[in-house]
Amino acid sequence: MKNSMTLKGLFTCSEKIWNIQQGIYSAALFLHEEYHAKVTCCSAGDSGQDVQGTSVVANLPVLMRQNPAETLRRVLPKIREVLHVAGVEMQLTAAVSFLTVLQDESVSIHTYSHSFLHIILQNLEHRDAGVSNAWLETLLAVIEALPKETIRHEILNPLVSKAQISQTLQSRLVSCKIMGKLANKFESHIVKREILPLVKSLCQDVEYEVRTCMCRQLEPIAQGIGTELTKTVVLPELVELARDEGSSVRLAAFETLVNLLDMFDSDDRRQTVLPLVKSFCEKSFKADESILVSLSFHLGKLCNGLYGIFTPEQHLRFLEFYKKLCTLGLQQENGHNDNQLQLQTLEQEKKYISVRKNCAYNFPAMIVFVDPKNFHLELYSIFFCLCHDPEVPVRYTMAISFYEVAKLLNSGVYTIQKELVTLLQDESLEVLDALVGHLPEILELMINGGENSGSESKLLSIPDLIPALTTAEQRAATSLKWRTHEKLLQKYACLPQIISSDQIYYRFLHRMLTIILTNNVLPVQKAAARTLCVYLRYNRKQEQRHEVIQKLIEQLGQGKSYWNRLRFLDTCEFIMELFSKSFFCKYFFLPVLELTHDPVANVRIKLCYLLPKVKSTLKIPTDKHLLQQLELCIRKLLCQEKDKDVLTIVKRTVLELDRMDISLDAEQLEKEKQQNEGRSANVNDKIFEKKRRDNKTSSVLVKSMTLSSSGSSSGTSTGKEDKKSKLVRSQSFSTQALHPKYSNIDKCSNKSSATGYTSSLSGMGKGCMLSFSDDSFRTRSTGNSGNATFSSSSSLIASHNSFNSTDQKNNGNKESQSRKMSIKNRKSNS
What's the rounded Cα separation, in Å, for the pair 734 and 737? Predict the structure, then answer.
C-alpha cells in the first residue's frame, strides 16, 4: 500500500512537470509562429494574434516561478524576437512582466542581468514615449539591484555615447534620468570623472526638454556627490538654468534650488540663492506667471530656509508678498472690483485658485515665520480671508491645516474659535469632513488653551459652538455621504470632555438614540450607538441614566422591528466594552437573554455570537443566579430551536462556553470564607466542651462503680456491675466509632455532587444534546492576572460544609444520648 502511494505521488509530480513543460513548449511555439506572422503581415498592420501573444508575455512571471531554466531557454528568446515588431500593449506588458520577475527573485541577479538586461536596454528608445518610460522605470528598478561592475560595463559606458548631441531627443532624455540614478551608485570621484561632464553637457543642450529634464536630476546628483561638489559644480549650473529663456527650465531650476537649500551654507544663501529668489518673486506677477503656482507652493519652505539671513526689511517684504498671494484673484480690500483690470480668463482663474490653495497649505509655516506671538497682528486677517474664501479647495485646505495652526498658537488658540465655528457650518461637506478628522484634538487644545489653563472660560463664552456642532451633524445626516456622518458621530464621542453633562443630555444624547432608531445605514447606527454609550458612561445623574437605560431596553431590546433588536445587541456589546461587568449584569443581562425567544432567526444568531462575551461578565458567587438563567436559556435553545442555522451556531457556542472560565468575586469569597471559618470554629468549640464534660462524667462513674463493686459481697451484684461497666464502655466507644462512618458518607456526597451538574444536563428532554463538562467550573489561578476562576470542585464547597455541620450535629446527638444513659445507670446503682 505504501509503495503504491509513493508511485502515485511520483506519477502526479511527473504529470505536473509534463504539463509545465508542455505549457512552456506551447508558449514558445506560439510566439515563434506569431513572430513569423508579424514579419509577414507587418505592412498590413497589427496581427489578430496580438492578444494571445500579450497573454503569453503576461504569464512570463508564472512560467519563471514554475520552471525558470526551461523558460529562459525556450520562451525568453521568442519574446525577444516578437518585441521587435510588437505593438504598444505587448511592449507595456513585457516591461511590467520583466519588473515582476525581478521582484519575485525567480532567478539570481547575475542570471537576470545576463538574460533580461539586454532586452530592456534595446527597448529603451522606443518611438512611443509611454513605452520608453515603462522600460525606463524597469531599468531604474534593475539598477538598484545590479552590482557596480555590471552597471559600469552594461549601462554607464554605453551612456557616454547615448548622451551625445548627435543622438535622438528620446535617447538624451533617457540618459538624463539614468544619470540621476547612477550618481548614488558610485563613489564621488567616479561620478566627478565620468558622470559630471555628461551632466554639464546635457544642462547646455539645445533642446529645452533636455535642459529641463537634466535640471530636475540635479537634486539626486547633488545628494550623491556631497556638499563640496554641489557648491562648485551644481550651484553654478542651477544659477545659469534659473536665467534660461525657457519658462519650464526656470521653473525646474527654482524648485531644485528650494529642495537643495539645506546643502548650501549661509554665504551661498545670502550671495547666490536670495538674489535669485527675489528675482523670481518680482517677475512672477509681471512677465513669468508660470512660476507663480510653484512659488506659492514652496514659499513657506523658502521663507523658513532663508530666515536666518533676512534683514527686517526683507522679512517684511516676503510677508507682504505672501499676503498678496493669499488674496490673488479676489476683490480688492475696499470691496469693489478694479474696473481697469481685464476680465480674467478661465485658465487664469484656475491658476489663482491654485495659488490661494497653496497659500492655505503654507499657512502653518508662515506662522512659524512671523512667530506665533505675532499671529493676531500679522496673520489673523489673512487667516480670516482664507477660511471665508469663495472656493471650496481653499477652505478645504484650511480645514486640513486647522489642527496644525491650533497647535502652533498654543495659549492663543482662543483667537481662532470663531473660524472653527465658521468651518463647522461650511456649506461644503468636504470642508466639514476635513475639519472633523482632528476635531477632538482641536477642541481639547481649546479647552486646555495650551499652557494657559484659564482659557476654558473663553471656550464656554462662545455660544455658537454647540449649535454649530448640532447643525454639522444634521447636515451630514441629510446628505448622501454617510461616511462623513459616521466619522462625525465617532468624533462626537469626545464631547463629554468638552461640554457639560446636561448639555450633552439635552442636545446630543437623545439625537444619538434617534439616529439608532431611524437611520438606515448600519455603520452610522453603530457609530451613534457607541457614542451614546460614551455619553451614558460620563453621565452621573441617576435619573437621566435610568431613563436612557429604560429607553434602550424598551425601544431597542423590546422594539417591534427586528432591526432595532439587532442594534440593541450591538449597543450591549459597546456597554460591555465601556462599562463595568456589574453594570451590565445589573441592567442588561436579563434583557439580552430574553432575546433567546425572539421570533427572528437573525436576532437569535447574533445573540448566540454574543453569549461568550455575556458569560464573561459574570462573577461567582455573586452572579450565580444569572449563570443559572444563562444555562436555562441555552437548554431551551438546544431543545426548542427549529432553525438549522441557529441550532448549528448554538452548538458551536455551547462548546465555546464550555471552554470558558468564570471569574471569581474575590471579595465576596473572602467574606463567605470568614463566615464559614467562624461558624466551624464555634461548632468545634461546642463539641470540644461536650467531650470534656463527658470524659469527666465517665471518670466519676467508673470510680463510684469500682467502690461499690469492692464493697459488695453478693456474687449476683458483682455480675450486674460487670455488665453495667461493659455497657458504659461500649457506649463511649460507639461515640468514637461514628466518625469514620461519616467520613465515608462525606466522600460519597462529594462524588455524587461532582457528577450532579453533568447528569442534570445530560438527562434533559428528547433530542437535547448539551455537553457541559466540568471545565466551565474548573478552578485555576492565573499568574498574570492573579484572578481565580470558579470550578466544579469549588462549587461543592457549600454542600460539603453543610454536610460537615450535619455530621457534627449527629455526633452531638449521639453523645447526649450516651450521657443520658450513663446518668440512668448511676441512678439505678444508687
Answer: 5
Contacts of 123 (CB under 8 A, 6+ apart): 83, 91, 94, 95, 131, 132, 135
**Quick check: 585 and 618 in contact, CB under 8 A?**
yes
Distances (CA, A) of 311 to 288, 307, 314, 375, 405: 26, 9, 5, 20, 26
Written in H, E and C, the secondary structure of 125-172 is CCCCHHHHHHHHHHHHHHHHHCCHHHHHHHHHHHHHHHCCCCCCHHHH
Cell of 787: 484572578
Q: Do the Cβ atoms of 411 and 463 come closer than 8 Å?
A: no
How many alpha carbons fall within 13 Å on the CB side of residue 734?
16
Q: Which of 245, 265, 241, 263 is nearest to 254 (CA)?
A: 241
Q: Give backbone dihedrals phi and psi of 769, rounded to 5 degrees, phi first.
A: -115, 80
pLDDT score recorded for residue 684: 57
Beta bridge partners of 236: none
A 10 A CB-CB count for 295 gives 25
- Alpha-carbon distance 805 to 334, whole Å? 99
> Residues in the chain with pLDDT < 50?
1-18, 20-21, 24-25, 28-46, 333-336, 338-341, 451-459, 700-812, 814-815, 818-820, 823-830
User: Is the separation of the CB atoms in 386 and 398 below 8 Å?
Assistant: yes
Residue with cell 460507639: 734
Reported as a single tens digit per residue, the pLDDT across 558-587 is 999 999 999 999 999 999 999 999 999 999
**Cβ neighbours of residue 653 under 8 Å, at least 6 residues apart?**
608, 609, 611, 612, 634
Q: Return d(Cα 425, Cα 446) in angstroms, integer.
A: 18
Q: How many domains does the chain have?
A: 1
pLDDT at 724: 42
In whole angstroms, give the CA distance from residue 732 to residue 522.
80
Nearest partner of 230 among 271, 183, 277, 274, judged by Cα = 183
In-domain check, residue 505: no
Q: What are phi and psi of 619, to 5 degrees?
A: -130, 135
144, three cell numbers: 538598484
> Which triple of cell numbers denotes residue 327?
488674496
What is the SS3 assignment for 663?
A: strand
Residue 608 is assigned to a structural domain of this protein:
yes
502, 505, 508, 511: CA torsion to nearest 10: -160
- The residue type of 545 is R
Cis bond leading into 621, ω under 30°? Answer: yes
What's the CA gap between 406 and 308, in Å, rounded? 25
**pLDDT the model gives residue 111:** 92
- Per-residue confidence (pLDDT) for residue 670, from 0 to 100: 63
Closest CA to 473 of 501, 435, 502: 435
pLDDT in tens, 96-132: 999 999 999 989 999 999 999 999 998 988 888 899 9
- How far is Cα of residue 775 from the mean position of the Cα atoms in its chain? 34
At residue 667, the pLDDT reads 65
Q: Is the pTM of this model over 0.85?
A: no
Q: In 3D, which of 410, 491, 407 has the Cα closest to residue 455?
A: 410
Of all helices (H) and strands (E), which one includes residue 671?
helix 666-711
- Joined grid coordinates for residue 220: 539626486
131 contacts 170 by C-beta, under 8 angstroms: no
β-bridge partners, 790: 662
Query: Who contacts 205 (Cβ-Cβ below 8 Å, separation ≥6)?
Result: 165, 172, 211, 214
Q: Establish if 624 belongs to a structural domain.
A: yes
Measured between alpha carbons, how far is 24 from 28 in angstroms, rounded to an integer? 6
Residue with cell 555628461: 198
Give me the amino acid identity at 103.
Q
For 741, the grid coordinates are 462512618
What domain range is 610 assigned to?
Answer: 580-665
Structural domain includes residue 609? yes
**CB-CB neighbours of 668 under 10 Å:** 14
CA–CA distance, 95 with 105 (Å, rounded to integer): 16
Write down the pLDDT at residue 346. 83
